[in-house]
Amino acid sequence: MKTISLIFVSVFMTVPVIAAEKVTVKTARISEVAIDPERSAPATVISLTESVISARIAARVDELSVLVGDIVEKGGDLAKLDCADYELAYRESVARLEALQTRRDYAKRRVERTRQLIAKQSIAEEILDERESDYAVLGSELKGIQAEIKMKNLDRSRCTVTSPLRALVIERVTAAGEFVSVGTALVKIMDIDNTEISAQVLSRDATQLNQASKLYFEHNGVRYPVELRSILGAIDAETRNRESRLIFTDTHALPGATGKLVWRDKRAHIP
Q1: Residue 171 contacts by C-beta under 8 Å, 6 or more apart in sequence?
Q2: Which of 76, 103, 177, 207 allows an S-S link to 72, with CB 3.0 to 4.6 Å?
Q3: Who contacts 206 (Cβ-Cβ below 8 Å, separation ≥6)?
Q4: Best CA proximity match to 182, nearest among 78, 57, 53, 51
């Protein structure tokens, strides 16, 4: 027993003590390592105005002056309608106006002569009343025919259909030779100058988006500077997103371009 005990003690004393490995650490300020990660949301460029330009008179289409893809300036021709009937109606009204003016001038002279005769007591006053009444009636008829001429002249101006704004032609709805009535669609156009970006932002990101200093719309690898116009005050029931509307501050992408809205989260993040 004494021999075994000595051997055990000898073995125990010869086992080396293993020291713990050293771990090197260093410190840094949060401002030196913090990052502002980029956030993004799907976005699309939309035109504020897409209009279907319709006929305002009933007539045959003589010509569609534009093709799909054309850019037409404000006031530029879109279509021309057959105006022969409206031109004849306008001339007829002008002729009636001239005849009525002649009759009214004659009635005025009769009134003046009648007053002279009454002053000489050569005619009864009832005749003056009658002739003044005729003169007044002709004056009312003259105002009516003048209003009629304005309306027919307006119809004549509608024979040429023009664009209300600078726009892109996206569809020709009718064709030359067709007869159209009032309200029949002729051409569909899109405003290419007044556009906005519609972005679908997660509801939890709305606050960070509102505080972001730099915003971009990214499309095909190109970033366009934009600024926030509005975040809708409602959450979409299906997607749980909030729609945001933004406007370009410099160059802009074409309407219909899809991409993403990019901004940096101002909250500091540590890797």
Answers
A1: 68, 187, 188
A2: 76
A3: 231, 242, 244
A4: 57
Cα separation of 107 and 96, whole Å?
16
Confidence of residue 215 (pLDDT cuts 50, 70, 90): very high
Phi-psi region of 128 (alpha: psi -120 to 50; beta: other; left: phi over 0): alpha
Is the separation of the CB atoms in 215 and 199 below 8 Å?
no
Report the alpha-carbon distance of residue 236 to residue 202 in Å, rounded. Answer: 10
Eight-class DSSP state of 56: S
Do residues 148 and 25 make contact, with C-beta atoms less than 8 angstroms apart? no
Euclidean distance between CA atoms 65 and 181, whole angstroms: 19
| Nearest Cα to Cα of residue 226 among 55, 91, 99, 43 | 43
Model pLDDT, residue 239: 86
Question: How do residues 29-49 score in pLDDT, each as one tens digit?
Answer: 766 665 566 788 999 999 999
Please tell me the predicted confidence (pLDDT) of residue 246. 94
